[in-house]
């Protein structure tokens, strides 16, 4: 199951993390897929997202890993200068890791940050964002102990 995590980062003190990788040759667990694809759609509204990737994020189908999703992840990885493996990795230990080219942020953390910038009055209550899918709503409510 996807989870809500507290970090040591002042830029992203809390975030939603996947239980397993999402994308090419990955487990693609339902709740993780809904979380990542919904965050991608939300991040498309962020003013600081790379302009080259915004149209690709806007065309993501929430709840689906398909060729467009994998191509979009690879393009985003290329734009960010990270390994182009075609999947969104689960953040392990922190929001950052030591990449081949130096420190880097896990893309799932970046998606959370971008969503928070796009919807500052909702994050981390991403269930309040219009068109939030049921699996993400359930994740938020379970994680933040919200009933109903």
Strand content: 5-15%
- Distance from N terminus to C terminus (CA atoms, Å) equals 20 Å
Mean pLDDT: 94
Strand arrangement in the largest pleated sheet: 1-2
Count the strands? 6
Name the shape in a single word. globular
Please tell me how large the radius of gyration is: 14 Å
Order of helices and strands: EEEHHHEEEHH
Class inferred from helices and paired strands: alpha+beta
Largest sheet: 2 strands, antiparallel
The number of distinct helices, counting runs of at least 4 residues, comes to: 5
- How many domains make up the coordinates? 1
Fraction in helix? 25-40%
Task: Enumerate the spans where pLDDT stays under 50 for 5 or more consecutive residues.
Answer: none
Describe this structure as you would to a colleague.
This protein is α+β, with helices and mostly antiparallel strands. It has one domain (3-143). It has five helices and six strands, in the order βββαααβββαα. The protein has helices at 30-43, 54-58, 67-80, 107-118, 134-143, and strands at residues 3-6, 14-17, 22-23, 87-88, 96-99, 102-105. The strands form three sheets. The chain has a two-stranded antiparallel ribbon with strand order 1-2. It has a two-stranded antiparallel ribbon with strand order 3-4. The protein has a two-stranded antiparallel sheet with strand order 5-6. Strand 1 (3-6) and strand 2 form a beta hairpin. Helix 1 (30-43) packs across helix 4. The model has no long low-confidence stretch (mean pLDDT 94).
